[in-house]
Design goal:
alpha+beta, 21% strand, 23 strands, 12-stranded mixed beta sheet, D-Maltodextrin-Binding Protein, domain 2, Dipeptide-binding Protein, domain 3, 4-stranded antiparallel beta sheet, 669 residues
Length: 669
């Protein structure tokens, strides 16, 4: 038996012989193949030279390419296939990458947006449109102005190229754009601006803007420049330069005294984004549809969609039309109508901050009882504003106590406030001798008899008819009915509360009626269509109390609403409030550029208003604007007037297209 050492030694020798034999074979094989390879390569080179000598071109033809498999080895053919696959994949990848990074979906011109408005157009004319939201909306789209509102409520230049204000704040110099055109193709010039301004100031035109430009004159510098000269500095002057500009070559031919009756008020010629196309009337003459076409010559870029407005007598009609897909949106949706929308998922509901005050104006001249400050204060204490906001408006509003909104630098918080306090209300009425007097069922029966009611005898009626005082008393008892009512010197405290015909308004005034009658004040509610409220109620101040909204500007200046010069049928001082101290404060505040000094003036103004309470300040609502979600691009947050919802209408679109973009700057745009 062999020892382990011997075995190991034999194994080592065997391994050495194996590797020695393997290396000898490898050397012989390589040498053989090397010689063979050299000979093969030499033959290939000779074949190449022969082919090239016979070919007219070094680039193979399509016929020659079919022999490529014979020319290339199988390995080279596979390498070529793989290379082609990589190239094709790379091209596809690059194409997809380019598509998603350099081809963008952008707005395209085309399509039609149909919006419903409650009311009817009458004066699509900058001189008169401020009274009606419908007129104001359409006028904003047809006419250009010196300044307009941006989508965040900011004041931006429109026709103005640049401007300067002198150090005294009395001279404003403007350079005007030279590429604006009227819809009839003629050029807009500074002469048109001067004509419009002079028309506003001309009494014969009866413009609703006239009082805003008292003490302001205009001068032409050259063909592209004008200046406004103010008798006194006015800190918010730029804010009122948002009026539309009229074409002088057309309007100069119309006498001022007949301007309100001109056909141009309904078929206007402007220079804005849109131009009048046509209107459709009912057989009775009411305008039902109003068509606007894109202004292809607009100096600031064309909008994308054509516009159609349809007009309705109330919100019931408008919502029904929306549910039946007859319109694509509604200019404003009262809160209580939201539940009437059939397909809310197909709509966008935009909640816009609107600097609007909702008030109850007191007419002290129309109702002697309201001339007493204590009565007005008692009425204010008796209303629970928070309950109305929470239950009726579903929280879409907030309480206000002042003619200046809380987000203004001029707002003063520590004024007298009228939080709900029935006890305080009763004390105030008692202090000025408005005592509770109960009318019973028997009193009502006796009044009916006195007035010749069916249950009285003829002799009893004749006996009472000779006494006028008793007759009036009986009429008052019958009109009041059973209950506990306030009486003074034989007269009952009765108020006629008026508002615009709108379900939301009617619910709130109904609640106010219940509050006032709870303290013994008989309240008669009357509702008028929005188309009649101006001429039948506001113009002649035909109300005791008016529940109405008041839109304030971005600047806190409330001169137009509370200065005594703004009373009367053409003024916005609806309460006809007159106070010499308030007049002076408002006159001073609007001429001061120093914010701290202005704030002090407005503080004193708010203190007087809260004490005198010519109107009850209720709440500031949220403006709900709805559109079909097929319309894209709406991006407005804050508005000062309902018309400002069109601030970025040039970005709205329905149709889209693909656009090739190259630079990062283009992509960002």
């Amino acid at each position: 038996m062999s020892s382990p050492k011997l075995i190991i030694s034999k194994i080592k020798n065997l391994i050495k012989r194996f590797f020695s034999a393997f290396f000898d074979f490898f050397k012989k094989f390589c040498f053989f193949n090397s010689k063979k390879s050299v000979k093969k390569n030499e033959q290939i080179e000779l074949d190449k030279k022969l082919v090239l000598s016979l070919s007219k071109s070094r680039i193979p033809s399509l016929k020659q390419l079919k022999y490529i498999k014979k020319y290339l080895s199988s390995g080279e053919i596979w390498l070529m296939r793989i290379s082609f696959a990589i190239i094709i994949f790379s091209l596809l990848f690059s194409g997809v990458f380019f598509y998603f990074n350099n081809l963008q979906t952008v707005a395209a011109q085309g399509g039609e947006y149909v919006e419903g408005l409650v009311g009817s157009p009458q004066y699509i004319n900058p001189l008169y449109c401020s009274v009606s939201d419908v007129d104001n909306d359409i006028s904003r789209l047809i006419y250009s102005s010196l300044f307009k509102r941006g989508k965040n409520g900011e004041l931006v230049k429109d026709l103005v190229e640049s401007y300067e204000i002198d150090k005294d704040g009395k001279i404003y110099t403007f350079s005007i754009k030279n590429d604006a055109r009227w819809h009839d193709g003629s050029n807009l010039t500074v002469d048109d601006i001067i004509f419009t301004f002079n028309a506003i100031k001309n009494k014969e035109y009866k413009s609703t803007l006239r009082n805003s430009f008292a003490g302001v004159d205009i001068e032409k510098i050259d063909n592209t420049s004008i200046k406004f000269i103010l008798s006194d500095p006015y800190a918010a002057f730029l804010e009122i330069l948002t009026f539309g500009v009229l074409p002088s070559n057309i309007w100069a031919q119309i006498p001022p005294e007949t301007a309100m009756h001109a056909e141009l008020n309904l078929k206007p010629v402007g220079s804005g984004l849109y131009k009048f196309e046509k209107l459709v009337k009912e057989k009775v003459g009411n305008i039902r549809e109003y068509y606007l076409a894109i202004n292809k010559d607009y100096y600031a870029g064309e909008p994308n969609v054509n516009l159609v407005f349809k007009f309705f007598s109330d919100y019931d009609e408008a919502v029904l039309a929306l549910n039946n897909n007859l319109i694509d949106g509604i200019s404003y949706l009262p809160q209580d109508y939201k539940k009437e929308i059939v397909s809310p998922n197909t709509l966008n509901f935009y909640k816009l901050f609107l600097p609007q005050l909702t008030l109850i104006f007191f007419n002290q001249q129309n109702n002697p009882a309201l001339a007493d400050k204590s009565v007005r204060q008692a009425l204010a204490y008796s209303v629970d504003r928070n309950e109305s906001i929470n239950n009726i408006l579903e929280g879409n509003a907030y309480v206000v106590d002042s003619p200046i909104l809380p987000n203004s630098f001029a707002y003063f918080n520590d004024i007298k406030k009228y939080d709900y306090n029935l006890a305080k209300s009763g004390e105030l009425l008692e202090s000025v001798d408005w005592k509770i007097s109960e009318i019973t069922e028997e009193d009502v029966r006796e009044a009916e008899i006195s007035l010749g009611g069916e249950e009285g005898t003829e002799d009893e009626a004749e006996e009472e008819s000779g006494n006028d005082a008793l007759m009036k008393q009986a009429e008052a008892v019958l009109s009041l009915g059973e209950g506990k009512w306030r009486q003074k010197d034989g007269n009952y405290l009765v108020l006629r509360l008026v508002t615009v015909e709108r379900n939301e308004n009617e619910q709130i005034v109904k609640a106010i009626k219940s509050y006032w009658e709870a303290i013994g004040v008989k309240t008669i509610v009357e509702v008028f269509p929005i188309t009649e409220i101006r001429d039948k109620i506001i113009k002649d101040r035909n109300f005791d109390a008016l529940f109405y909204g008041q839109v304030v500007g971005s600047d806190p200046d409330p001169y137009a609403f509370w200065h005594s010069s703004q009373t009367g049928e053409d003024g916005f001082n609806i309460a006809n409030f007159t106070n010499k101290e308030v007049d002076q404060l408002l006159e001073d505040a609007r001429t001061i550029s120093n914010i701290e000094e202005r704030r002090e003036k407005y503080k004193q103004f708010q203190e007087i208003i809260s004490e005198e309470i010519p109107a009850m300040f209720l709440y500031s609502p949220v403006y709900t604007y709805i559109q079909s979600n097929s319309l894209k691009g709406f991006d407005v947050k804050n508005i000062f007037l309902p018309r400002d919802r069109f601030a970025n209408i040039n970005e709205w679109y329905i149709k889209v297209k693909k656009k090739l973009v190259w630079s990062e700057k283009e992509k960002a745009q």
